[in-house]
Specification:
The complex is a heterodimer of chains A (436) and B (175). Helices cover 8% and strands 41% of the residues of chain A. Chain A is mostly beta strands and 436 residues long. In chain A, the strands form 7 sheets. In chain A, strands 1, 2, 3, 4, 5, 6 and 7 form a 7-stranded mixed beta sheet that branches. Chain A has a 4-stranded antiparallel beta sheet with strand order 10-9-8-31, with no helix packed on it. In chain A, a hairpin with a 6-residue loop joins strand 21 and strand 22. The radius of gyration of chain A is 23 Å and the shape is globular. Chain B has 175 residues and is an alpha+beta fold. Chain B has 2 domains: 50 residues; 125 residues, 2-Layer Sandwich (60s Ribosomal Protein L30, Chain: A). In chain B, helix 3 packs across helix 4. The longest helix of chain B is centred in the N-terminal third of the chain and has 30 residues. Classes of the chains: A mainly beta (436), B alpha+beta (175). Chains A and B meet through strand 27 of A and helix 4 and strand 3 of B.
Chain lengths: 436, 175
């Protein structure tokens, strides 16, 4: 997808650089009870040429992104008093205060003579009466949604102090048909559900896709030829290949943070153990040797440790080991069975699935097992994946009896639980890094 | 629950066989006395006669292809050993047949864990068949985890049906 996009961003320093900067407008994402920040985002002004609806389309995506984060409350444009026609003049802050806006985003979309789209935008602190941010992007017109997401990310980062996560993609399993004869297809879409693409046709079952660190490659499990194995899928070329040539089932793949190796589970005579394969040399190294089930490996972001699940202690629990397999120790000691550990990109937390009877919930704990917090409480939530900023999780929510699956998201604070837009039923989401 | 449904199936089968036998006997009695009434165009055949011996259907119906497991367990239960013994005997009778044992789990496990658990179950069935004389090269295994339920209610009776090992014929059967 890299090749489709020529982007550049420049600071909008002209004209308004003399306005005082202000850091008054902030949102603390670590606060579970934060009130969403009221923000006004009028349709971007047409700067000439191109699709006259582009400005409204981009502003609409930015409003939706920020609303979905739960940290912002985009105000209804119908209530706006000032009609923005020129983004290079200072807004009438009083008119924006009168509709309770604390932040204001103004933007302009221009079709360049070379056919590219130019998007300028400014973020204003309405009470501080100052510009917080001014950026300019160039891209091809069909990439307007990505520009909108980059605008959203820039606003999110400027106000929260955290990197955004809107210019990302989700790879997932699309599900159709009844539970006893479900058709599962590998699919990918933008983080907001736009641009869904099916990558496999559904004539064989696929499970548990995971991105590599550049979001160009997907590792997943496929039942091609009724032989369940881990495969690699190159998104740009559509090429897929079986990873290694194992005599038995391989499953639960996960890339290392440098993208050079894949941890996976290999089953031999009924016993499942964790291995790591170097993608360049294709050499494999066995990390666990226990006769119990050892599976679901996930690297720490520094690549030095691997969290995994094992029932070696009698029930399914979370363990951590060094990347060479040494130092295996149990970290989950809370209620029930615990599995599917996934290391936060920030390194500070493990997200996991807790099982108590038929009840499955998503939680987080520190990598040493302390500070455990449960985030969801439905019938069956499973398989968390982290936004690249470590502030939001997606997971699979299954209805009783496995009759339906949907993808949901929740903030790491446990707030802002909502369904993720997917084309039909879906499971096994994996969140990409920010697109490069 | 499973064992219940199995015995129910066998009960039904026996009843059908019995019924066939009775019907036959009754006909014999009726046709005994006088001249020669035309025999019934098609005498009700025994239920099994339409099934080709050595076929996949023969194996499924007359031997039984499914065993069941307790929650998170993969040991072969005593009640299922007779069935697996019949599978082994049938496979001895039809040496060209190759099978794949599918291991399945109920919904109460994470996806990866259930894939591993299904592999354990499939392997347990395979090992039992091998212990009964089936050559190891004739038996493949595959785990479907919780991905192929046969019952989608959220209760123990349904979960018990889904925790199963199914011996499926992949080659060499009569057809």
């Amino acid at each position: 997808m890299k090749k489709f996009l020529v982007l550049c961003a420049a600071l909008l320093a002209f004209a308004l650089a003399s306005l005082p900067a202000s850091a008054a407008l902030t949102v603390d994402v670590t606060q579970g009870n934060a009130q969403p920040l009221p923000i006004a985002i009028p349709d971007f002004v047409p700067g000439g040429g191109g699709d006259p609806a582009a400005g409204a389309n981009i502003a609409g995506v930015v409003r939706a992104d920020l609303e979905r984060s739960g940290l912002f409350r985009p105000l209804d444009p119908k209530g706006f008093v000032e009609h923005v026609t020129n983004i290079n003049t200072v807004p009438n802050f009083q008119s924006w205060r009168s509709i309770t806006a604390q932040g204001l985003v103004t933007g302009q979309v221009t079709q360049q003579p070379d056919g590219r789209l130019r998007v300028d935008f400014r973020l204003w602190d309405v009470y501080g009466e100052s510009q917080m941010l001014g950026l300019q992007f160039f891209t091809t017109p069909e990439n307007w949604r990505r520009i909108a997401h980059m605008v959203s990310d820039a606003i999110y980062e400027r106000i929260t102090g955290e990197k955004g996560y809107f210019d990302t993609r989700i790879v997932f399993i699309s599900e159709t048909g009844p539970a006893i004869k479900r058709v599962k297809r590998l699919a990918i879409m933008d983080e907001d559900g736009a641009n869904p693409i099916f990558l496999t046709r559904g004539d064989y079952m696929v499970l548990t896709p995971r991105f590599n660190p550049t979001a160009q490659m997907i590792a997943y499990m496929s039942y091609i030829g009724a032989k369940p194995r881990v495969y690699l899928f190159d998104i740009e070329t559509g090429r897929q290949e079986m990873l290694g040539n194992f005599p038995n089932m391989t499953f639960s793949p996960r890339f290392s943070p440098d993208g050079n190796s894949v941890a996976l589970t290999l089953e031999t005579a009924g016993n499942s153990d964790i291995y790591v394969m170097d993608l360049r040399s294709r050499s494999i190294r066995r990390l666990t040797t226990d006769p119990a089930i050892d599976t679901a490996p996930s690297f720490s972001p520094d690549g030095r440790q691997i969290a995994f699940e094992s029932d070696r202690g009698g029930s399914q629990q979370i363990y951590v080991m060094n990347a060479d397999g040494s130092g295996q120790h149990r970290v989950s000691f809370g209620a029930g069975g615990n599995g599917t550990p996934v290391w936060s990109p920030r390194g500070d937390l493990l997200a996991f699935t807790r099982q108590q009877g038929a009840h499955f919930t998503i939680g987080v704990m520190r990598p040493d097992g302390s500070g455990e917090r449960m985030l969801t409480n439905a019938y069956h939530d499973e398989g968390p994946t982290w936004a690249p900023n470590g502030r939001v999780l997606m997971f699979t929510r299954v209805s009783p009896g496995g009759r339906d699956s949907q993808v949901w998201s929740v903030d790491v604070t446990g707030r802002n639980e909502r369904r993720v837009l997917t084309p039909g039923s879906a499971s096994d989401p994996a969140w990409s890094p920010l697109i490069q | 629950m499973i064992r219940f449904s199995n015995s129910l199936k066998f009960a039904a089968l026996s009843a059908a066989l019995l019924l066939g036998a009775c019907t036959h006997k009754q006909e014999a009695v009726n046709t005994a006395p006088p001249p020669a009434p035309p025999p019934p165009a098609a005498a009700p055949a025994p239920v099994t006669s339409s099934i080709l011996p050595g076929s996949a259907e023969d194996f499924r119906v007359n031997v039984g292809d499914t065993v069941h497991f307790a929650l998170n367990e993969y040991n072969i239960e005593d009640a299922d050993k007779a069935l697996l013994g019949r599978q082994a005997a049938w496979l001895a009778r039809y040496p060209a047949v190759r099978v794949t044992v599918e291991g399945h789990a109920d919904e109460r496990g994470t996806r990866e864990y259930n894939l591993a658990l299904g592999a354990r179950r499939a392997n347990a069935v395979k090992e039992y068949l091998v212990s009964q004389g089936v050559s190891t090269g004739r038996v493949e295994t595959v785990s479907y985890g919780k991905e192929r339920p046969i019952c989608t209610e959220s209760n123990e009776g349904c979960w018990a049906q889904n925790r199963r090992g199914v011996t499926t014929i992949t080659a060499g059967a009569n057809s």
